[in-house]
Amino acid sequence: xxxxxxxxxxxxxxxxxxxxxxIILAISLYLAYTFVPAPGANYTTVxxxxxxxxxxxxxxxYVTAMMTSIFLSLIGFYLINNTIKKDxxxxxxxxxxxxxVSNFKYLFTKVLSNFMxxxxxxxxxxxxxxxxxxxRSNGAAFNMVQFLLPYLLTTLPCIFFIASLAVLAEVxxxxxPMLQYIGFFFLFGIITANVLQGASSTSKIVMDPxxxxxxxxxxxxxxxxxxxxxxxxGGVGFNVTSNQEVKNFLxxxxxxxxxxxxxxxxxxxxxxxxxxxxSKFFHRFDVKEKIKSRKKKIILTESNKERNVLQxxxxxxxxxxxxxxxxxxxxxxxxxMLFRKGPKWLxxxxxxxxxAMLFVPIKIAHQFVLPxxxxxQVGRWSDLATKEKTNRIH
Length: 394
Description:
Blueprint: H1 2-16, H2 19-35, E1 43-48, E2 51-53, H3 57-80, H4 83-89, H5 92-97, H6 103-136, H7 144-173, H8 177-196, H9 202-206, H10 212-226, E3 233-240, E4 247-249, H11 258-279, H12 302-308, H13 328-340, H14 345-359, H15 362-381, H16 387-390
Parallel strand pairs: 2-4
Antiparallel strand pairs: 1-3
Helix pairs in contact: 1-6, 2-3, 2-6, 3-6, 3-7, 3-8, 6-7, 6-11, 7-11, 8-15, 14-15
């Protein structure tokens, strides 16, 4: 048991002490501050028809929990999806591979460490939400249960699913991190499009890993029963609007159905089951590359020996060294390294996307093809300023 705690503790400390974690934490806290617009703000985050809830405990808790589930899922995946890679790069994985820790337990500890990292961000975001309750509620009664329930039932199962998905992606696509980035980006887009758009249904509530469809449906029902029978959630995100178009309503929470609670537990179970299945395919850091080489027998004759004798180096016959202070050789070298980095087949995808942008409609090119083309270059550009130090040529 202590071995598992050590793995979780070490991985958690390594991640929370990184600059990436601090940057994402700062971004998350800033976003959390903007999740609940101040009175008179020219934007909304959750709007049902023309109605926005008054800033009481329930509204702030539900909105911040729902927005955290969506935004932290997107940025959190890219923060935690290299946990196995770090063990491989630091050769800690080689040590773990020699221990009695099973594949499933090792992967599950990685899931728990990922979950704790995202839980830390969620906890600080919830504290920011509590501050907003007292700052922007205008003296409304405080209800801790209404504030915490959406975090417990919506956000926590969501980040556990993302923590498991990051480990799952590394197990099956560890050699191709770019495929992980692009694949999750489109998976996130598909899930959000399926959940946030269209009418509510039981299947959408159950098949929603983010858990926000139930909250959106509950908000819609409150507005429809008391204010506007045709109101629907116009969108979840930052939407610019004028103050004259927004009306306020009193929101005091929703009734959590048993089906919804079961569906949240189901997503946790699916995550654990997926990790168990992936443990059967985990390489356990046995990633030795097999190099096929032909051994040539060299018979050294007297003449061969004479030809292989090291000749004396005469400095006077070497070409003179000319100092060149221009930047063109550096630019040429950098371009060559950029073009040669990564597998060659990836350039076929790049060229295919470039050609596709010439023929597909502008909307498809802008929303789908161009983001793919950009994502494909992230790995190519990411080490432009750091590879000198990484390769110790600085």
